[in-house]
Design goal:
Blueprint lengths: L3 H8 L15 H14 L4 E2 L3 E8 L12 E14 L5 E10 L14 H10 L3 E4 L4 E6 L2 H15 L7 H23 L12 E4 L5 E4 L11 E4 H25 L23
Helix pairs in contact: 4-5
């Protein structure tokens, strides 16, 4: 299964990596930083491994309207932090918001320490600085960070309990809403055709089978690639990738489409080698 984040990055693959992050080691952070530069202009702080924007008015996405319209800091680090709750993803982008209700007084934090502990128990991606009176959300994009900051605000204002269940429900609801757009994107272009948009399925011989998501239950796994990635690999490279992907799927007990060992089984990841 291809995740939304992976898909978005493939869609942006042909976008030129900005010179400010050309030497970064972590590809996902590098690509997302380049997207943010295009969207918000060059950052105020340009570190070797960090870019930071201040007083950012967030620009709504095509399919998402930000609830926290303005944040105090937005920054990306050249890092790759694996995070499995509430679904597998990678963290590297941070959104910081000053919250009046938790501003320190006389050099002392005013936020309930029990609430800070609850946030820590929910996810390691909520960072509370009681002396500065600010909260930072860390995830793989600014949309997920927006959901996290809203969860924090609602908990501080007593609208919801700060629980893993409540937070997970919000993030997964976001994922499901974007999943509709994901399936639409998969199906762009004709079956088996050479298309610039969307992903195509490939067999173990490197043959294009059709659009990604079009396989049937019980079929041997095909692997999906963007047009640009497939062009880089070539037929032999595609065949090698598909066979390695199939071997990894089989080892994980998921040799055929629809044959997962258990519901919610983790995605089997294999590098393309491009």
């Amino acid at each position: 299964m291809i995740k939304l984040k992976d898909l978005l990055f493939e869609q942006e693959e042909e976008k030129k990596i900005h010179s400010l992050v050309s030497n970064w080691e972590n590809e996902m952070a590098q690509k997302y930083a380049s997207i943010l530069i295009d969207k918000y202009g060059e950052p105020k702080v340009k570190g070797e491994k960090m870019l930071l924007w201040e007083d950012v008015t967030l620009i709504d996405e095509e399919k998402y309207e930000y609830k926290v319209k303005k944040i105090d800091k937005l920054y990306v680090l050249d890092e790759h932090i694996e995070h499995s709750f509430p679904a597998d993803h990678i963290d590297y982008v941070y959104s910081t918001l000053k919250i009046p209700q938790i501003q320190a007084k006389d050099g002392k934090s005013t936020i309930d320490p029990d609430l800070v502990g609850k946030f820590a128990g929910v996810t390691g991606s909520i960072i509370v600085d009681g002396l500065k009176g600010e909260v930072t959300a860390r995830c793989g994009d600014t949309v997920a960070n927006d959901v996290t900051l809203n969860f924090v605000l609602d908990a501080i204002n007593g609208k919801v309990e700060a629980t893993k269940e409540e937070y997970g429900k919000r993030i997964l609801a976001l994922k499901e809403s974007l999943g509709e757009n994901l399936s639409q994107w998969f199906k762009k272009g004709g079956a088996g055709g050479t298309t610039a948009g969307g992903w195509d399925r490939y067999s173990s011989t490197g043959k294009k089978l059709g659009k990604c998501g079009g396989g049937k239950k019980g079929d041997a796994y095909a692997a999906c690639l963007s047009a640009s990635k497939a062009a880089k690999l070539g037929k032999k490279g595609i065949a090698s990738f598909v066979n390695r992907k199939r071997a990894a799927q089989k080892k994980a007990g998921d040799a055929k489409k629809g044959g997962e060992k258990s519901k919610g089984q983790k995605t089997t990841k294999v590098k393309t080698g491009a």
